Amino acid sequence: MNEPALLELFNSLREAGLPIGLAEYNLLLEAISGGFGTRDRDALAQLCRALWVKSQREEQIFQNYFDQIIIQQSEQVFIESETEKPSLINQKKQITPRKKAARLTRF
Amino acid sequence: MVKSLNSNDFKYTGNKQPKLGETYKGKLIYPYFPSQKLVDVVNLAIYLGRPLLLKGEPGCGKTKLAVAVAYELELDFEAWYVKSTSQAKDGLYIYDTVGRLRDAQLAASGSLTTEEKKRFDEPTSYIRLGPLGRGFTNPKRSVILIDEIDKADIDFPNDLLLELDEQLIKIEEVQENGREKEIKAVNPPIVFITSNDEKDLPDAFLRRCIFYYINFPSYEQIVQIVKNRFPDIANELVEKAVARFIKLREILEGETGRFSKNVSTSELLDWVNALQRDSLKDALNKLSEESQLPYLEVLLKSWDAHINYLRLSRDDE
After folding, report:
1. pTM for the model
2. A86 DSSP β-pair partners
3. Of A11, B83, B296, B297, whose CB has the highest number of CB atoms within 10 Å?
């Protein structure tokens, strides 16, 4: 998985109490690989919202974390590679593989 | 997850609109103007093969979306209007046990015709499919609307999970090879579910759905809706009526705090219809800022709303 920022967003939302699990995370990746949510930052937010947010209360939590974690420069965040698989680049929030593994074991 | 291979073939655009008075599958349908976001989320639900759960205040177009999608994609349409007494099983099938018992008695006394006898010998002939069941067995892909799911019992959504997930119906009453008869969806239907937030839906159910909150239409969108319903209407009348309608909504919103009781687009359309019976000049006069709204009884359906309106509109002056 090449989306550390998305994983961080996902983990933060879980910690904030959203009822989402690994299945919902994988669903997001599936949708992204199908070309959804890749147009710009707004489209990504909308995609995450559709899959993870189920009430207006959760919406506020989501917006908060999304703004914090997914950086603003949309042109830099979304780079369509030749294989058309979007990659999300966010150097600051890079999570080391070990840390990532530690997070995943919690599911 | 079950997903059809050709799910990419279906792409909703929201651009194909029916003409005035056009019917689709025996139902009168009206133009529908989705936002780009709504179009995107419909395509997402189709792509992932998940039900799309729609929330939003009355009149925002939750229910009408499903048939609009069916119309554009030329798919069959099944609607299931949930009632407080609805059971999940009703949408799948009803087994006509009484009919079978009747036939059993008639068969015992030898008074069944050959045709009726044939029916009696075939236990599956007593299965009456519900909207979901029909959608599942339809060789063509269909659009299914489950309207106002929050009206039913709290267990209702969870009871539906298995069927929606596995696209499989188990008929308890009919045994095949020693097991319950199973009907597998031929073509996974596109499922729309609406909720008015009367009850909270169970988490397990929410997790399976794609969720979208439809905002109440803007001034421009409402004007477009009214003009489409009444193509011959004068621009001036539409603009004035919609402007006052939105102002009325704002007044009532501030008072009740809950949008569920607020006036909605369907009342607006009735109201515009009533206004059109007057001459244009009269109607415009009645809509002028100084006067009280005409035909209030069409817009306001509760005594509280009436009193609030009268009191607050007086405060404004």
Report:
1. 0.79
2. A80
3. A11
